[in-house]
Specification:
three-stranded antiparallel sheet, 5 helices, about 10% strand, alpha+beta
């Protein structure tokens, strides 16, 4: 499976802003395991149904979840492809960081004579 890794700055901002909130991270985690209705999600948080809907809307705008009608309910499903794209971006940053550490190690190992 080929994962598209290029994200625009706006997409990166939406994804990481969405993931900055613990409730939204929990919603993503739960909906990656199994789809959940908004009403079912709302039962597990000490906040109103409307507040949970707002969290879901933020996640949906970031592409981290999708919402599908199913009868009277709306089922929320995590979107692993967007998680993979964000992970690819973080992997790139890690590669840059590790490269810098490797260069520093090489400089420190050089014989001064």
């Amino acid at each position: 499976m080929v994962v598209e890794t290029e994200l625009s700055d706006a997409e990166v901002d939406r994804i990481f802003r969405a993931l900055a909130d613990a409730t939204r991270r929990d919603i993503v985690r739960r909906t990656l395991v199994a789809q959940e209705s908004v009403s079912r999600l709302a039962q597990d948080y000490e906040m109103s149904f409307a507040a949970v809907q707002k969290h879901v809307a933020v996640l949906e705008r970031a592409g981290l979840v999708t919402k599908e009608p199913h009868g009277r309910e709306r089922l929320i499903r995590g979107n692993p492809a967007v998680i993979q794209r964000a992970q690819a971006l973080l992997d790139t940053y890690e590669e840059i960081w590790r490269s810098r550490i490797d260069r520093l190690d090489a400089l420190l190992d050089e014989d001064p004579n």
